[in-house]
Amino acid sequence: MTNNPTDDSRPWSVFLIFLRLGLTSFGGPIAHLGYFRAEFVTRRRWLSERSYADLVALCQFLPGPASSQVGIAVGLSRAGYSGALAAWAGFTLPSAIALILFALGISSYGDYVSQGALHGLKVVAVAVVAQAVWGMARNLCTDGLRVTIMAIATCVVLLVPS
C-alpha cells in the first residue's frame, strides 16, 4: 500500500470515494470486490495485485461480507479509524437508503413490479461477478500450476452439488 499524505488519505475524501463506489457498485459482495480491485489496484494504485489478493483472502476467511471488510481495511490503511468508519458509511449508506425506498415503493406499488425486471438484474449481477473473477484470474494465475489448480477448483465448484 502506498501511504502518501494526500487529499485522498483524509476521512472525508475516503468517504466520498466509497460513496461513489456505493452508488455505482451492483451485484453483491463478490461483485463489489471486482469494483474495489478496479478502484484501488488499477485506478488509484493504493494496493498491489498481491496485496489486494491477500486482503481479499483474509476477509473471505472471516465471518461476514468480505467486501465490507475489505472496504473497512482500505479505509483504515488510508485514514486510520476515522477512515475505516468513513469507508463503511460511504459504501453502506446508498444501499441502506435504496432498501428503505424499495421497501416503501414495493408496499405501495408491489403489484406493478415485473418479475422480468428482477430477473434482468440477476443477469447483470452474474456478468459483473464474472468480469471480476476473470480480471483477478488473469493477474493471479500466471503459470501452469496455478492455472491447473484454478481449473480443477472451478470444475469441483461447478460439478459438486452444494
Can you walk me through this structure?
With 162 residues, the chain is mainly alpha-helical. The protein has one domain. It is 79% helix and 0% strand. It is flat and about 55 Å long. 27% of the residues are buried.
Quote the beta fraction: under 5%
Give me the Rg, rounded.
18 Å
Q: Give the N-to-C terminal Cα separation.
A: 37 Å
Number of helices: 6
Shape descriptor reads flat
The biggest beta sheet, please?
none
Uncertain segments are: none
Structural class: mainly alpha
How many strand elements?
0
List the secondary-structure elements in sequence, H or E: HHHHHH
Number of domains: 1
Q: Tell me roughly what share of residues is in helical segments.
A: over 70%
**Whole-number mean pLDDT:** 87
Describe the structure in brief:
The chain has 162 residues and is mostly helical. It has helices at 11-24, 29-43, 49-61, 66-109, 115-140, 144-159.
Q: How do the strands and helices of this protein lay out in sequence?
A:
Blueprint: H1 11-24, H2 29-43, H3 49-61, H4 66-109, H5 115-140, H6 144-159
Helix pairs in contact: 1-4, 2-4, 2-5, 3-4
